Structures are given as C-alpha cells and as structure tokens.
Amino acid sequence: MKGIPTVLITVSPEVSAQMRPPRALYPKGFKIGNSMGGPFMRELQEQVLRDALTLLGENTRPGQITTHEYPAYGEYHEPPRVRN
Amino acid sequence: MSIARKCVPFTPFEGELSRCTIAIVTAGGVHLNDQEPFNIADELGDLTYRIIPEDVDTSRLQVTHHHYDHTDADKDINVVFPIDVLRDLQAEGFIKGIAKKHIGYMGYTMQLKAMYEGTAREIAIEIDKGSRADAVILTGG
C-alpha cells in the first residue's frame, strides 16, 4: 500500500493536534457533532467540504491544523481543551 | 502517548480534485439501519467498523455513539457524514466521483493500541483495495 491522502475535519483542534493528522481543517467555533456545520445548512456544508478537499493540494505542514472562519454558521462554541 | 511520537503518515496528493474520487471515513458512529449498532455498553469501546455503500439513501443511516450529542446528525446525517454534500460537489464538477465504499466506526475507545494497529489498518485496507478512492475525508463527532 502506498498510502491514501487524507484530510481531517475536526471541531476539537487541540485534541486532534495530539494525533498530528497529515492535514486538517478546523471550522472555527463549530460545536461537537457539527463537523460540517448545522443540519440542512447545505451551502455551508458544501463550502466546508470544498475547503477541506482543497487542503489536499495545498502546501500544508503535516501535523498542523488549518483554521477557517465561517460566519454563516452563526454560532461560536469553545472547543475542548487538552489538560496537561 | 506513543501515537503522537510517531512520524506523521503523510501521503502526498497528486492530481486534480476534479479528476478524483473521494471516500468518507467517520468516527461519528454512523451505520446503516440494518447493520449491527456499535456496542455502547462496553466501557472499553467498540473496535468494529461498518461499510457504507456509495449509493446509500441517507434515510437509511443512523448514529450509535454515546460520547457526543448527535441530535443534529439524527436530523441531517450530513453534519458528520457528508455524503449528500459530496454528491453536490460531484454534480458541480468539483470532484469526479464518490467512492464505492465509505466507513463508519465509533471513535471512542480505551483500546488505543488495538484501534491504531488493528481497526485503523483494516479500514485503510478496506478503502485502498475496495473503494477506488483517490483521497479520504475524515470526520469525527
């Protein structure tokens, strides 16, 4: 197996960063259970998915999480923190 | 945690999205109505996974997971398993295709080594050999 490129969409960036994913998108402020946005917010969901897929071809640093803001979501939820 | 000290398993992406087929792998506990639900009674978690076909109707999908609030996913599974969203992107030509197989598993386990060395490997093989995916979208709960 030569491997398959992956991109993670995470709403818990600190937790996910511990696993050092090859590529990851954090839609800022989305709550847990809303990785793509809210239910039936299809245009927003499409944009999140386009942005995540676009990361595949960008020069991202493996293990780093990319943050995008989506005002259309209309809410902000503080992500879970990692306790040291 | 030993996993974090390993190298990042980075696979370069070559090609154009408009010519690529995409698979979804979700830790959000998604499965078909008629598949065995994940075992939420076991405190150690459930190491199994479910295969979801490309042509699935989202009314046939449900969530069994007790470590996040899946009320919204119960209304619209696309919030954690964006299969209809992928179909939209295929229709607009942003991607070429939707993989033959997608995977749901329950991303809660106390058996990290077994998940990392067993389940994750099995899922990767399932996608690599049977889905014809060029790239994978990973989602959690």
Please tell me about this protein's structure.
The complex is a heterodimer of chains A (84) and B (141). Chain A is of the alpha/beta class and 84 residues long. Chain A is 23% helix and 14% strand. A three-stranded parallel β-sheet of chain A has the order 1-2-3. Chain A has helices at 13-17, 42-55, and strands spanning 6-9, 24-27, 65-68. The model of chain A has no long low-confidence stretch (mean pLDDT 95). The radius of gyration of chain A is 13 Å and the shape is globular. The longest helix of chain A has 14 residues, at 42-55. Chain A has a domain at 21-73. Chain B has one domain (23-139). The longest helix of chain B is centred in the last third of the chain and has 19 residues, at 112-130. With 141 residues, chain B is α/β, with parallel strands linked by helices. Chain B has helices at residues 71-75, 83-91, 112-130; strands spanning 21-26, 30-32, 49-53, 61-63, 97-98, 101-105, 135-139. The two termini of chain B are 22 Å apart. In chain B, the strands form two sheets. In chain B, strands 1, 3, 5, 6 and 7 form a five-stranded mixed β-sheet that branches. A two-stranded antiparallel sheet of chain B has the order 2-4. Chain B contains three helices and seven strands. The model of chain B has no long low-confidence stretch (mean pLDDT 93). The A-B interface holds A 1-12, 16, 18-23, 32-40, 42, 45-46, 49-50, 52-54, 56-57, 62-63 and B 1, 3-4, 8-13, 16-17, 22, 25, 28, 68-73, 75-76, 78-80, 82, 84-86, 88-89, 94-95, 124-125, 127-128, 133-141. Strand 1 of chain A pairs parallel with strand 7 (135-139) of chain B.
Please describe the topology of this protein.
The complex is a heterodimer of chains A (84) and B (141).
Chain A: E1 6-9, H1 13-17, E2 24-27, H2 42-55, E3 65-68
Parallel strand pairs in A: 1-2, 2-3
Chain B: E1 21-26, E2 30-32, E3 49-53, E4 61-63, H1 71-75, H2 83-91, E5 97-98, E6 101-105, H3 112-130, E7 135-139
Parallel strand pairs in B: 1-5, 1-6, 1-7
Antiparallel strand pairs in B: 2-4, 3-6
